[in-house]
Here is the input.
Amino acid sequence: MPRRVLVTGGAGYIGSHCCKALARAGAEVVVYDNLSRGHADAVKWGPLVEGDLRDRVTLEAALRAHRIEAVIHFAALAYVGESVGAPETYYDNNLGGMIALLEAMEAVGVGRIVFSSSCATYGTPAQLPITEDMVQAPINPYGRTKLACEWMLRDAAVAHGIEFAALRYFNAAGADPEGEIGERHDPETHLIPLALMAASGEAGPLRIFGTDYPTPDGTCIRDYIHVDDLAEAHLRALDHLAAGRGSVALNLGTGRGSSVREVIAAVERVTGRPVPVIAEARRAGDPAELTADPSKARETLGFAARYTDLDQIVAHAAPWFGHARALAG
Ligand code: UDP
Here is the structure.
């Protein structure tokens, strides 16, 4: 494992969980974040360099000052709906950030990067579960920015010899089991937080986006993976690159899908409270079903999600959304 790691977006949800895992594994963590969406108080395991990725001067200085050996790149705008309304902002931020980061790494001589990609790069998959060799045809600007970043990484690998791991997350969920950090998005648009907030009365009824999908209960199916499992996969990806095993693109999911109604039932079991719901029309850009084939990550990194029980994932998230610490573990 590289000892000194720059984590862009380390003040964010997945980034902060990854910082905790890195620190626990003995790495020195430096967070680089512009705090546009992240939270300074989630940076607890190393210094925070406050800067925008597109600010090459600050970025290069951070890489040099901390003698960084590898980068984990989370920093990006990540709301599908927002990206549809403001594509220029998404292209500017997500592609501009990646360009500046690759240039800075090249200038300083940092050769390894783990990148937050997304199952959104596949668009509507031709078959399920999704394997890494399937066509990547994203159906929204957010997904297109992530795919374009993967292309940049491949081209930079050829041109400059950098090595990368592109990790295509399915639905990140849950929170630190020890309660030190959690999921705090503003605005919150994600299913599990909104269902928990509906149960606690912190938010109004949960709007179910689409009850007429061709799935067993008519609602969308997603593959929810615990944020700590994602963090673990990033550590393994760093080890993989440090061992010289070469660039990879991998799905990170559990392989198991849960429908919106199944998530609601889990929230009701965990909190002991009903989730008021309103059935609404489909949300634009939502494929009916997205589940990962996790075999390649298992073969390449020896990684498999440890949290396979949806109730446990929901239980870890619950205290952040108006519920007493519910279930143990
Ligand atoms: N969803 C919903 N109501 C909400 C938020 C989400 O029905 O208030 C559905 C959404 O249509 C999708 C699933 O829950 O099928 C997961 O959505 P989320 O926004 O959490 O993650 P995404 O899959 O968009 O990354």
